[in-house]
Specification:
Layout: H1 5-15, H2 20-24, H3 36-60, H4 72-96, H5 100-111, H6 126-141, H7 143-150, H8 157-162, H9 173-197, H10 202-213, H11 231-244, H12 248-255, H13 259-264, H14 266-284, H15 294-305, H16 316-319, H17 322-334, H18 347-365, E1 375-377, E2 383-385, H19 388-413, H20 419-430, H21 446-461, H22 463-480
Helix pairs in contact: 1-3, 1-4, 4-5, 4-22, 5-6, 5-21, 6-10, 7-9, 9-10, 9-11, 10-11, 11-15, 14-15, 14-17, 14-18, 15-17, 17-20, 18-19, 19-20, 19-21, 20-21, 21-22
């Protein structure tokens, strides 16, 4: 057990940052000072958590320099996220009278930036609403990245990469983390100011901006963006969603005004091609009888592929034909850019898989001497020649993702939901999207809710990280016994 103490040290050091949403939720007191008692209770809880994690850090600090063994990084990241989600579920249980399952679901949906919700936002205190949005804000960049931004001791590049950060923007890991966090925060401030200028009240603007940039989808109003009935707000929110679903390395290209290089990246091409094609298919096959405008179609398509989950249409499922819903599922499965706040398979893997399939058919039909290897345009502007390892990794992940999607859909369908409804709802969970056809609610069966929770965790941390952690823990327990 002693040799595992370094794992406890890192988990404690990282989990300590789970109290940040509790602390910052006090901003809501500017909008309703009568909630000071609730915030005071939140602070007591935060102090207890800080004390416990600090004690564990002190007890295990002598082991912090122990070299990480195989899969230690997967265990640390997975355990940190599960513990953070558990801690963040406590306010929902204490202050909103949600059950443990409902609270854990709401917390998971926040930290994984999914946006599915069982919270009654109409009657919820502003402190809780802001707290919920803050879990999405910090969940978007990740707990490890937050720790790297603020603490002196680096938990290491392996742990950083396991959380889904595919790009180290600068040679120094801490500087890279701070740059990502600064870009993310700057966009959120930009979003808040833009929404206020467009007529949204400041409290809603704070929540919507964080939800859009984290591609989360939690809204302070029960009817999401329909409540505002504003085309300029919808248009600006789409911009924020796209920024949130874009790889942070690609943001540097935009900031450095290398727009032509940005447009050449493989992920941008996947985003542009699939969103455009599916938008046109739905639009050309719609009629006035369905009452769906091009404005609504474009917004729902962008919301799906960025895995945000905002909606601008009421009675979503009754208005949209089943085939259109399946097309949105395709976008949910593709998801956003690698290393972004979005979920899904990721556009990079889809690009590599399509290029690999294209190369396979070329090798079958063309002479070897005229075949050129496919190249992949990275988000930082670099070009890589694809080899078998790239293709196998991408295709294997896609196959595993689709198997998980199938299993989750079957579990939902076993509870008498239609196959299309089940596919859409679990794809929304697994892709950390948050759009719902009505399956998820406070009355949802417990098994369905926990299936959705597992899907959200798989979607945020990526499937192989959790599998590696689970297998490693199982093997270590067997050795102990």
């Amino acid at each position: 057990m002693k040799k595992e103490l370094h794992i406890i040290y890192f988990i404690s050091a990282l989990t300590r940052f789970s109290i940040l949403p509790m602390i910052l939720s006090g901003v809501a007191l500017f909008y309703n000072a009568n909630e000071y008692k609730l915030y005071g209770q939140m602070m007591i809880l935060a102090l207890v958590i800080f004390g416990v994690t600090s004690l564990l850090i002190e007890l295990t600090k002598d082991c912090k320099d122990t070299k990480l063994q195989r899969n230690d990084d997967s265990i640390i990241v997975t355990a940190t996220w599960l513990l953070t989600i558990f801690i963040s579920a406590i306010p929902y249980m204490l202050f909103q009278n949600l059950t443990f399952t409902q609270s854990f679901f709401e917390s998971t949906s926040g930290w994984t930036t999914t946006g599915l919700s069982v919270l009654d936002v109409v009657n919820a205190p502003l402190v809780i609403i802001l707290y919920r949005s803050l879990t999405q804000f910090f969940g978007g960049v990740g707990i490890v990245l937050i720790a790297l931004t603020f603490i002196g001791k680096s938990p290491g590049i392996k742990i950083f990469m396991q959380e889904g950060h595919s790009d180290q923007l600068l040679p120094n890991l801490k500087q890279s983390a701070r740059l990502i966090f600064n870009i993310y925060t700057a966009y959120v401030i930009f979003g808040i100011l833009g929404l206020i200028i467009l007529g949204m009240n400041s409290f809603d603007a704070i929540n919507i901006s964080m939800a859009a940039l984290s591609t989360g989808g939690f809204a302070p109003q029960a009817s999401s963006l329909i409540y505002y009935n504003s085309f300029p707000i919808e248009l600006f929110t789409m911009l924020l969603m796209i920024l949130g679903a874009t790889n942070f390395a690609a943001h540097l290209l935009i900031i450095n005004r290398r727009l032509l290089t940005f447009f050449k990246t493989s992920e941008f091409k996947i985003f542009a091609i699939f969103s455009s094609i599916i938008t046109m298919i739905i639009y050309l096959n719609s009629t006035n009888a369905f009452g769906i405008s091009l404005r609504v179609i474009i917004f729902e398509v962008i919301s799906a592929i960025t895995t945000t989950g905002f909606s601008v249409t009421t009675d979503f499922y009754s208005q949209w034909r089943p085939i259109w819903v399946v097309l949105l599922v395709v976008l949910m499965v593709i998801g956003g850019g690698s290393g972004s706040t979005a979920g899904g398979i990721k556009q990079s893997r889809v690009s590599i898989a399509l290029k690999s399939i294209f190369m396979y058919f070329k090798r079958l039909t063309l002479p070897k001497q005229i075949i050129k290897n496919s190249v992949y345009y990275h988000n930082n502007g670099e070009v890589t020649t694809l080899d078998k390892s790239h293709s196998i990794d991408a295709l294997m992940y896609i196959v595993i993702y689709l198997i998980v999607l199938f299993v989750g859909t079957v579990i939902f369908a076993l509870y008498d939901y239609s196959v299309v409804d089940s596919l859409f709802e679990f794809a929304s969970s697994l892709g950390t999207v948050g759009t719902s056809v009505g399956i998820i609610s406070q009355s949802t069966p417990t098994v369905v809710m926990w299936t959705s929770i597992v899907g959200m965790l798989f979607g945020r941390l990526e499937i192989m990280v959790i599998i590696a952690a689970t297998v490693s823990i199982s093997n270590r327990l067997q050795r102990v016994n």
